Structures are given as structure tokens and as C-alpha cells.
Amino acid sequence: MTTAAKHTTTALLDRRPEARTFSVQDLLEMVASGRVRIPSFQRGLKWDRMNASLLLESLFRGYPVGTLLLWEAAAPAGEVRFGSLTLPAPQMPNALWVVDGQQRIVSLARILLAADPDSDDFALYVDLDAADFVIPPAIGKRRADPSR
Length: 148
Fold this sequence. Notes:
Layout: H1 3-11, H2 24-32, E1 36-37, H3 49-61, E2 69-75, E3 78-82, E4 85-89, E5 92-100, H4 102-112, E6 125-127, E7 132-134, H5 139-144
Parallel strand pairs: 1-5
Antiparallel strand pairs: 2-5, 3-4, 6-7
Helix pairs in contact: 2-4, 3-4
């Protein structure tokens, strides 16, 4: 690449791309605060509870779950939807727009941030005996065995 072409390419970016590492907790805090946004061009949600369960299992076991591609840019005030979860989102100059990773982020938000987890189709519980993520048992069954 010539120096002129290289200069033109970098001139289009406000700053150079960078890699950052977020813990799941940090990512979910950014989701809850309205910093993470889903742009309108993203395709619809395709994952179901089983996909979400496999994601949690991979995280639990320390397996790699891929990278996220996020674009930092300004965002207006409004609401953001993560599947069935709707959160307020203030105007901010440094929102993180999801370019790749929507299914994973939405799944984590629906499972771990839901105000009433039992009412979400992605609800999962941890079966400590089996070390597995399972569909929540019926409320009556949970009451019958308070250790659960």
C-alpha cells in the first residue's frame, strides 16, 4: 500500500481499532446501563434456550465463546431491546453498537438480567448435582424441595 493510500485509509477512522477484554459481569453492566446497543440493521434473533444453555455451559467450563465486534459511537436516548428484555438507554457519546455477537449478548442479558427470570423463554437454572443448566422446574416442585 502506498503512503498516500495508507494515509487516506486511516484518515477515515477517528481512531484505530483496538481489542479490549470485558468480563461477562462488565459486559452485562454495560448492557444494563444502556451503553450496549443493537443497530436496526441486525438480523432477527435466531437462538433459542438450548443455544443459550450451550453458551452458559461453555462459559462455565472456561471454553472460548468467540469474540464480539462492537463499534463505539454516539447514540440517542431511547430504549434498547434484548429479546424480551427492554431497558432504558440514555443519550451517550460512547455507546457500543453490536456488529457481531448479538445472539450471545442477548442470550446472556435475557438469562442474567431478567427482572422475572421465570417468565422468560430463556430462563435457565443451574442443577448443581449434574453441573448442568436446565429449564426451571415448576414453581410447585421448587416449593416441595426447598433445597432447590
